[in-house]
Amino acid sequence: MGAGTGFSLGAEASRADAHVRLARGGGGLVMPGKLFSTTVVGSYPQPAWLVDSEALKALVVPRVRAPQVWRVAPEYLLEAQNDATILAIRDQEQAGIDTITDGEMRRESYSNRFGTSLDGIDMEQPFIRELGEFRIPMPRVVGPLVRPGPVEVEDLQFLRAHTSRRSKITLPGPFTLSKQAKDDYYPRCRSGRDGLTPLW
Questions:
Q1: In 10 A of CB 190, how many CB atoms?
Q2: What pLDDT shows up at residue 42?
Q3: Judging by DSSP bridges, how do beta strands 182-183 and 119-131 pair with one another?
């Protein structure tokens, strides 16, 4: 390359070679022979024997809990979710993914499992958001937002127990959750997002 381009093929090759050496040295970042670490973004499709996709579609994206979408009886649901999670783990391993997830197999939506675990939320009398022909129940913030205990920790422990790969669990952030609830508690000068932020 010409002078002044700011690009050095030699430097790029050295960085790539160092990355491969790191991988081969067991650093755990990438699989041997790969230049880039790979992961997945978003959830895995939940199998038809676990979730009724038509029932889920009718809800658009659940903001409150939606137990009606599960095809498995409550007493067997955890076992079925565990089975689906292991299938998602093995699929990612076979695909050669470096950092894998649990596929979010236990969730009715990306964010409702975290949001509905908080104190200060009223789901018995939800706010109804009208979106075209759909009426979407959304949790209402009616008191101080408090996380009473760990969220997703057991899911992460299950994931780690069933793979030797690097792993991650996805969580919605305060901004996302603040847009998926009706704030009837915090004053206008202080949004529900401010109440959510310390929970992470």
A1: 11
A2: 86
A3: unpaired
3's enclosing H/E stretch is none
- In eight-state DSSP terms, residue 129 is E
Is the pLDDT confidence value at 8 over 80?
no
Residues in the chain: 200
Three-state DSSP class for residue 167? strand
Give the model's pLDDT for residue 86. Answer: 98
For residues 75-113, b (16+ Cβ closer than 10 Å) or e, as one string?
eeeeebbeebbbebbeebeeeebbbbbbbbbbbbbbbbb
DSSP-based three-state secondary structure for 52: coil
Q: Is the pLDDT of residue 22 over 70?
A: no
* Both tokens assigned to 99: 């950092």
Compute the distance between CA of residue 66 and CA of residue 31 in angstroms, rounded to an integer: 39
Q: Tell me phi and psi for residue 13, to 5 degrees.
A: -65, -40
* Structure token pair of residue 32: 């041997």
Which of the pair, 54 or 8, is modelled with greater confidence?
54
- Contact criterion met (CB below 8 Å) for 25 and 33: no
pLDDT, one tens digit per residue, over 56-75 is 988 888 888 899 999 999 99
Neighbouring CB atoms inside 10 A of 174's CB total: 18
State pTM to two decimals: 0.75
130: which strand partners? 135
